[in-house]
Automatic annotation (TrEMBL):
<feature type="compositionally biased region" description="Polar residues">
    <location>
        <begin position="608"/>
        <end position="618"/>
    </location>
</feature>
<keyword id="KW-0285">Flavoprotein</keyword>
<comment type="similarity">
    <text>Belongs to the flavin-dependent halogenase family.</text>
</comment>
<keyword id="KW-0539">Nucleus</keyword>
<dbReference type="GO" id="GO:0003677">
    <property type="term" value="F:DNA binding"/>
</dbReference>
<keyword id="KW-0479">Metal-binding</keyword>
<dbReference type="GO" id="GO:0000981">
    <property type="term" value="F:DNA-binding transcription factor activity, RNA polymerase II-specific"/>
</dbReference>
<dbReference type="InterPro" id="IPR036188">
    <property type="entry name" value="FAD/NAD-bd_sf"/>
</dbReference>
<dbReference type="InterPro" id="IPR050816">
    <property type="entry name" value="Flavin-dep_Halogenase_NPB"/>
</dbReference>
<dbReference type="InterPro" id="IPR002938">
    <property type="entry name" value="FAD-bd"/>
</dbReference>
<feature type="domain" description="FAD-binding">
    <location>
        <begin position="7"/>
        <end position="332"/>
    </location>
</feature>
<protein>
    <recommendedName>
        <fullName>Transcription factor domain-containing protein</fullName>
    </recommendedName>
</protein>
<dbReference type="Pfam" id="PF04082">
    <property type="entry name" value="Fungal_trans"/>
</dbReference>
<keyword id="KW-0560">Oxidoreductase</keyword>
<dbReference type="InterPro" id="IPR007219">
    <property type="entry name" value="XnlR_reg_dom"/>
</dbReference>
<feature type="domain" description="Xylanolytic transcriptional activator regulatory">
    <location>
        <begin position="718"/>
        <end position="877"/>
    </location>
</feature>
<dbReference type="GO" id="GO:0071949">
    <property type="term" value="F:FAD binding"/>
</dbReference>
Length: 1184
């Protein structure tokens, strides 16, 4: 099996942390790839497993297999910390009377965990080393300003090489670095690893055969034995293994060990034996008749931490993040804790349960929490080890020592992390940590004296060297405690539990992630709300009696009755009255004039004869009109069945006259009949205008976890294309209100349901089925569609003056454009447009003196609303209304949401570079140039002038947008493809406007053919990018301008004898096949599909590629639908104009300033080409 080129989550490192994380995620049906540099089985130290291992292995389904493997079972561990007596930690405290864990041979145990990840569904590869990681800039969610997380950018791909010489790269959405002590992210990219100078030790160990058993015949016979060295420099371990060996190691301070070894002049083995005999009498006695069966192994500098353990879309786990002195066998435990934390925080972010920043902070907090617990306890115990005769942990009596040792047992057994929901265990763990902090306390006087001496020395090395040994120890203690408490700015959120930043772990298969903690303290709640410490104290002391207990104040004077009874101070502040909204005075005449203008602009009122000034302007317009432009062409009026319908000639007439228009009208009529028969709620406009019945919608709200998944989907798939919201503000609203939907205002409820509806619309059937296995996507979509419509009815959206309601309506209309027939849809978008006018979004808020945040939100809304209404108008056949001159709303700024806050007052500074707005702004910028180029050509400008405009557009879009794009980012890749293809489309349309197959030279034909190939290749490249598939909801056919023209030109070329021959012909058919294979271009309810399909069949019969015995699937489909081009006349009417290269569809001629009929023909295909055209008129004013 070869390493794939893409996955959802890449895990680097197949040790316990990486393999555990991979197993957890794979069991959640996540696409996981696990890469391990070594080949299993591989050696590793760390054979003693603590009690928590049972919990972790049980969760991934590996406990039973582990237990049956034959590892040495142990029921506890023995620690001889002082020269008085040994202490025993019994696992029955946490595992029950028969509870045990194991001493393991790590080469066997680690391979079992690694292979289990594969059995769980992960793709696993050993002997595969990750060499480099590619990062892209990431400035979302506040990562740049939070010290608890790192931000080297977002990792998007990694290069790898295998021991067999093969190599490659893999792309991913999330990365878990569990690469062990090598720690590729921490050491190579973040460079944030911090060595713990207070635990600068060295270890030497070997494996013995024939050793005597420890505590033979007793419960702790096979348990590890840890003995303090007699000189206080460290400790020694003895761990019996199931292969008959005894692992014995000596851990000592590096400075002492190296000095002694150098003075003794002994070999490594000789010094190891002598140290064992001299410093570890009890363990030495076990091996007096045993033999060493391995070489002497050595390791040093293993105690370290990092300033952060997570960043945007990556997590550090296991030794890749931190490691600590292994006195209490914490290595595998901390690996499992961090591996599980990495998995559940990745899932929480993927499922939208919280923001990526919140998930990353949770992981950093959790790793810090587990590490710090062990750090404090290890430092406490090692301090006792180094002062053998001192009673640091207790008084001299043994009972006191036992009580002290019991303080730290929940930590050293790992149950504080494995069973974090057990309140009793957490209380014991907290007591243990507090006890450890107390033992390591250094008096204020001692600290001040040493720090003053260091400060006085400054850069004087001799001054520092004059510190006494005791002063050096105090200095190390200060550093050690500082690291224990702050861990280099990593926040210790909760030493006693898993509630971090108000989020708690969900550790249940199928549901892993994070959830909002159900109960938090008052102090923590006020802290989350941002209340300062002094104010928190005041609020808690003053208001506890009433505010905390939710007792209503009866406003009695001078005190309320409750406060009189309780003897509490009473301070009641009346809320200020809500300010009344000021209305501008408007005369009746102006109102009438305004209403008449709105109706006239949208074809609902016949225009009155113009007054003198209007006549003057009309005359000037007539005089400035080019002779080629002439009078606007008339549309067609279709009558029948008691009604009439006007069709604008620019959209439908060119497709085949009345016949096609009537056919489309019949299709609309059929659609209406079906829709009316099945509709539960006709539409929010009808419901509000005629049956405004209010219905409660609480039962339609999804669970919090489901709501956060839908929000994450909306954020990932909708907002990049339809930038409308301020993400931090919306995220906070959804996160809080989805937990308590009864607190939603009617406007907020509209917005949430619209977001849920849009998110389901953006999901595929399979994706929806995986996330919501108990309900079909169509049913869920209809459920949220009804809820959104009813929410709009409940809020009375036609009379609203709330921007949030209009945002919800726009989202709903964007997602439901295929639900309604074009006629009804046009009326609905028109209503939204009228509401926008009432809110004044068509006027630029900056000129009206509005706050910067509100100005930007209104601009975003307007530049989604305007093209939406224009597209609906065009699709209905009514034509596109001109934009009034006084509509002066500017385009949104190129600014990230992180740099846009609701309380901003100063002018906004536009960013130069990639932002979340980049795609929307690039599309708008190019659209303005489409209009400039078309108008210039229509007014008779020469080829040089038109080409200079196109070159200017190309230069500007490259400089403003493309230069900042990273092709690894899917939205950036789409921006590049779209923008460059748009430039080709400008050139193509101008050349097609004057093109004739009969008159064109070979050079002109090749030039046009080359442009069409570039546009088609861009379409193919975009569809081939798996990352862009999440945006397919926004288009049914093509996402790039000029695509239909390109396809039709190539098909027409194939119809001509000798136009395309040889390799050109083969390449053309290959591209056509790829386009048909990747898109649904055979929807025969679409007029353009019929026309182009007939043309494709004619081209195939005229110029088939060589070597093809039968046509490809799309030709077979067309043939089955229409037969050969000679005997199917009903479709030829539809394709007649398309087949004729001299028709207006390809030779745009004088109508070039108007939209190409090829783009406007699609009834329901509201792709980018269609959606944006009406906005260009407005945008050209801003871009000049």
């Amino acid at each position: 099996m070869s390493v794939p080129t893409r996955c959802s989550v890449l895990v680097i490192g197949g040790g316990p942390a990486g393999s555990y994380a991979a197993s957890v995620l794979a069991r959640e049906s996540v696409d996981v790839v696990l890469l391990e540099a070594d080949v299993f089985p591989r050696y590793h130290i760390g054979e003693s497993m603590i009690a928590s291992m049972r919990y972790f292995l049980r969760f991934i389904g590996l406990e039973e297999e582990f237990d049956k493997h034959g590892f040495t079972k142990k029921f506890g561990a023995t620690f001889k910390i002082t020269d008085k007596r040994a202490a025993y930690t019994d696992f029955s405290v946490s595992l029950g009377p028969e509870g045990h864990t194991w001493n393991v041979v790590r080469s066997e145990a680690d391979e079992m965990i690694f292979r289990h990840a594969g059995k769980s569904g992960a793709q696993i590869f050993d002997g595969t080393k990750v060499n480099d990681i590619t990062f892209v800039p990431y400035d979302q969610d506040g990562f740049t300003s939070d010290v608890r997380v790192a931000n080297p950018g977002r990792p998007v791909s990694a290069s790898w090489s295998r021991k067999d010489g093969s190599s490659g790269s893999i792309e991913f959405d999330y990365l878990i670095d569990a690469s062990g002590r090598a720690g590729i992210i921490s050491t190579k990219y973040l460079k944030n690893r911090k060595m713990n100078e207070a635990l600068k030790n060295i270890a030497n160990w070997a494996y013995w055969k024939g050793a005597a058993p420890f505590a033979k015949g007793e419960r702790n016979e096979n348990s590890p034995f840890f003995e303090a060295l007699k000189d206080g420099s460290g400790w020694c371990w003895a761990i019996p293994l199931h292969d008959g060996t005894l692992s014995i190691g000596i851990v000592a301070r590096q400075d002492i060990f190296n000095a002694k070894k150098k003075a003794a002049g002994l070999s490594s083995e000789e010094f190891y034996r002598s140290s064992l005999k001299e410093l570890c009498p009890e363990i030495s006695e076990l091996v007096k008749d045993a033999q060493i069966v391995s070489g002497i192994k050595q390791a040093a500098d293993w105690s370290y931490s990092a300033s952060a353990y997570a960043g945007p879309h990556f997590r550090l786990a296991g030794d890749a993040g931190c490691f600590i002195d292994p006195y209490f066998s914490s290595g595998v435990h901390l690996a499992f804790v961090s591996g599980l934390s990495a998995a559940l925080t990745v899932q929480a972010a993927r499922k939208g349960q919280c923001s990526e920043l919140a998930a990353a902070k949770w992981h950093s907090g959790k790793v810090t929490e587990g590490y710090t617990r062990f750090l404090l306890v290890v430092m406490t115990v090692l301090k006792q080890v180094r002062q053998q005769s001192s009673a640091l942990l207790a008084k001299e009596e043994e009972a006191g020592f036992e009580r002290a040792f019991n303080f730290i047992q929940p930590v050293i057994q790992g149950t504080a992390d494995a069973e974090s929901s057990d309140a009793a265990i957490q209380r014991k763990a907290a007591a243990g940590v507090e006890f450890a902090l107390g033992v390591n306390e250094i008096s204020a006087a001692q600290q001040k004296a040493v720090l003053d001496k260091v400060q006085d020395a400054g850069h004087d090395v001799n001054g520092l060297e004059k510190l006494t040994d005791d002063e050096v120890e105090i200095l190390k203690g200060i550093a050690g405690k500082q690291q224990a408490l702050t861990l280099h700015a990593s926040n210790i959120e909760a030493l006693a539990g898993d509630t971090i930043n108000g989020l708690a772990a969900v550790i249940e298969r199928g549901k892993i992630g994070l959830k909002s903690a159900s109960v938090i303290s008052e102090a923590e709640a006020l802290h989350v709300l941002g209340v300062e410490a002094e104010e928190r104290e005041r609020m808690m002391n003053l208001n506890r009696t009433l505010a905390v207990e939710a007792v209503r104040c009866d406003r009695g004077s001078p005190k309320c009755s409750t406060c009189v009874k309780r003897g509490a101070d009473c301070v009641y502040q009346r809320l200020p009255p809500r300010p009344r909204r000021q209305r501008r005075a408007e005369s009746a005449e102006r109102k009438v004039e305004r209403y008449e203008r709105i109706l006239s602009e949208h074809g609902l009122l016949e225009s009155s004869p113009p007054n003198a000034s209007e006549s003057g302007r009309a005359s000037q317009a007539e005089e400035s009109r080019s002779p080629d432009q002439g009078q606007p062409e008339a549309g067609i009026l279709i009558g029948g069945q008691g009604g009439t319908r006007y069709i604008d000639d620019r959209i439908w007439v060119g497709l085949g006259g009345h016949a096609i228009a009537r056919g489309v009208e019949e299709a609309f009529a059929g659609h209406r009949e079906t829709s009316d028969a099945e509709a539960i709620l006709a539409d929010p406009l009808s419901a509000t205008a005629f049956t405004p019945s209010h219905q409660p919608l609480l039962r339609f709200h999804p669970a919090h976890e489901e709501a956060m998944y839908l929000w994450k989907t909306h954020l990932d798939r909708v907002e990049p294309i339809c930038r409308l919201l301020h993400i931090p503000t919306a995220a906070q609203l959804i996160h809080t209100r989805s937990q308590n939907p009864q607190l939603l205002s009617p406007a907020e409820e509209c917005l949430l349901f619209a977001i849920y509806h849009f998110a389901v619309h953006a999901l595929t059937d399979d994706e929806c089925r995986r996330q919501f296995p108990h309900i079909e996507r169509d049913v869920l979509l209809e459920r949220f569609s009804f809820a959104t419509e009813q929410a709009l009815v409940n809020v009375g959206w036609l009379a609203t003056t709330d921007l949030t309601v209009l945002q919800a309506a726009v989202f709903f209309l964007l997602a439901s454009r295929h639900k309604h027939d074009p006629n009804s849809y046009w009326i609905l978008t028109g209503a939204a447009m009228r509401i926008g006018q009432r809110l004044g979004v068509h006027r630029d808020g900056e000129r009206l003196g509005m706050p910067p945040f509100e100005v930007e939100m209104r601009r975003r809304l307007y530049y989604q609303l305007l093209p939406l209404d224009g597209a609906a108008s065009a699709a209905s056949g009514a034509g596109i209304s001109p934009i009034p001159e006084n509509w002066d709303c500017k385009p949104p700024l190129n600014i990230s949401d992180a740099n846009l806050q609701p309380d901003m007052t100063g002018p906004l500074v536009e960013q130069r570079g990639a932002t979340e707005m980049m795609f929307c702004l690039a599309r708008a910028h190019l659209g303005s140039y489409f209009l400039k180029v078309s108008r210039a050509a229509a007014n008779g400008a020469g080829h040089e002038i038109v080409e200079s405009l196109i070159q200017q557009a190309e230069s500007e879009v490259e400089d403003r947008y493309i230069r900042f794009c990273d092709v690894v980012d899917c939205l950036h890749f789409q921006t590049i493809c779209f923008a460059r293809a748009a430039i080709h489309a400008m050139r193509l349309r101008q050349r097609l406007s004057k093109f004739s197959f009969a008159m064109a030279s070979t050079t002109e034909k090749k030039e046009i053919y080359g442009l069409t190939q570039k546009i088609m290749d861009a379409n193919i490249a975009m569809h081939g990018n798996a990352g862009l598939r999440k945006y397919l909801w926004s288009v049914r056919t093509f996402a790039i301008w000029g695509s239909w023209e390109s396809l039709i030109f190539v098909l027409n070329s194939l119809c001509k004898a000798n136009m395309l021959v040889g390799e050109d012909r083969e390449d053309a058919w290959l591209r056509i096949q790829q386009l048909y294979g990747s898109r649904n271009l055979c929807d025969w309810t679409q007029v353009l599909h019929v026309a182009v399909g007939r043309l494709a069949l004619k081209a195939w019969e005229a110029s088939p590629p060589g070597g093809w015995l039968a046509g490809p699937d799309f030709i077979t489909t067309i043939r089955q639908s229409f037969g050969s081009s000679q005997n199917k006349a009903h479709a030829s009417n539809a394709s007649r104009e398309v087949n004729d290269p001299s028709s207006s569809n390809l030779a745009l001629g004088a109508s070039v300033a108007q939209r190409s009929a090829l783009d406007d023909v699609v009834v329901e295909d509201l792709d980018f080409d269609f959606m944006d055209w009406t906005a260009w008129e407005q945008m050209i004013k801003s871009y000049g």
